[in-house]
Amino acid sequence: MGDSGTYLYTALTGWIPDDRSFTYGFLIRPLTVLPHTLVPLLVFQTLLGAISAWIVGCCLLKYFRAPRWLATICTLLCAIEPLQLFAERCVLTETVSIFLFAVVVWLSLDYLASGRLVSLAGIQIVSVVLISIRVSYLPLVEVDSILLPLIGPAAAAVLIAVRARRNRTGDANSGILKPALRFAANILVGALLCQAVLYGYRNWNGALLDRPPAYNYADGIFLASFWAPVIEARDFPIPDLRGPIFDHLKYDLKNPKNRQNHCFSVGGLCENIRKETRAKFGDDPRTSPNKLAKKAALRAAKRNPLGLLRLFVVTAEEYFEPSYFRTMVTLEEGSIQTAGADFDKELRENFNQPYAPLRSTLVQRWHLAAIPWYRFLLFAPLVFAILAIGSGRKNVAEKLFFAVAIFGLTLEAIALTQEPTVRYMIGEAWLVPLALGATSALLLSDKRIAVARESRSELGGAPKLPTAEHRI
Question: Are 358 and 334 in contact, with CB atoms under 8 Å apart?
Fold first, then answer.
């Protein structure tokens, strides 16, 4: 409700929120405000969802030579994935961000296959647009800007040249120079271009809000609420405010199920930090509540890393509490929420429809019935690791890329959340059919080779396999 209302308000008025990505509001403005209806947004997001699923099949066919039947199954699984179907029908950033994430993955696989600098540069450009829609992809974007050049063809060429140099003398040693220069160019394009576009986005965001450059201005507040059960009074950097903040908490700080209250409710940790900090320092940006909250959270993580890991485990376990988790899924659907009179009035006046949460629709029932799938996503990294190891040494770079992405997205769902939230798993839900389909295709190719060799042995001659030209 808070997210959707913010995006619609941005579309209507141009208001820039300071606590979340904002470009989605401007994106949906011509789709919603000008025609005075939300129907074009539904059509647009459905189209993006279809393209995102199509990208899965294209990547499997082009980069992993998957059988058409396997690529078709993975594409259809992605097309009917419940989180994506549900998101297509919501005023939320998930559908657009998944489409942009799919483009980033496609370009990444193309770079790993071809080594083209234009693909590497395209990744950085699309990534900053992705961040402007949903900032939670930022850690993955920054890691990939370094990882991709390190595991790409340019890096492989340097290793080959180094190995060749060991067996050569004289002028042959100069053969390493060209691969090294190309590898350096890849590092520069990946790392420096990524930081350049992210720097530009931070400055643009700051200029719009007339504040110092930043991705948003509530990341510390949210981080403190995510890790609230680990934070203690001694972690807060201003000793004089420890008592006023921590001695007057309305909710038990150690209870993980209170994290939502500590973020948004009066008497919660974050609200107390805002109130006491502003009372003492005013609006001084050097001691803003957001900065102090972030320092407290990071101090707690450094002081008690094992406690933080236990908190991650507790959050993962909450996905397996049947009644509680089902309530969280139902709450995300909006089916048990009500809208205020002012919000309902704005919807009627600007979009010609009342507040209408999904109730008993096919998509809503599918979204709720898919609880076992959401739980499986927590184990998807392990399943992928088994398939990746079993498929041998083929496509090692692609498998490393998938591993970082899947493990990173899974960790985000349990480390950067206040409660089990399946909406935060949508990136992994799109990636899993592609990653598991890719490793399955590699395993199947091993079996086809084994059958061919067996056929050669039995027939006493070369098997009639398709030529490379025919396979292309």
Answer: yes
CB atoms within 10 A of CB 64: 24
Task: Name the DSSP class of 172.
Answer: G
Distance CA 293, CA 311 (A): 18
DSSP string, 18-84: SSS--HHHHHHHHHHTTTTSSHHHHHHHHHHHHHHHHHHHHHHHHHH---HHHHHHHHHHHHT-HHH
Q: Which of 5, 9, 27 is nearest to 91 (CA)?
A: 5
DSSP 237: S
Given this model, what pLDDT does residue 165 score? 75
Instruction: Give the pTM.
Output: 0.92
Locus of tokens 């008497």? 267
Longest CA span, the chain: 88
Comparison of pLDDT for 22 and 415, the residue scoring more: 415
Supply the pLDDT for residue 468: 40
Domain residue ranges in the chain: 109-210, 220-318
Question: Helix H segments across 167-214?
Answer: 177-187, 193-209
Residue 9 structure tokens: 């308000």
Structure tokens at 148: 């991709």
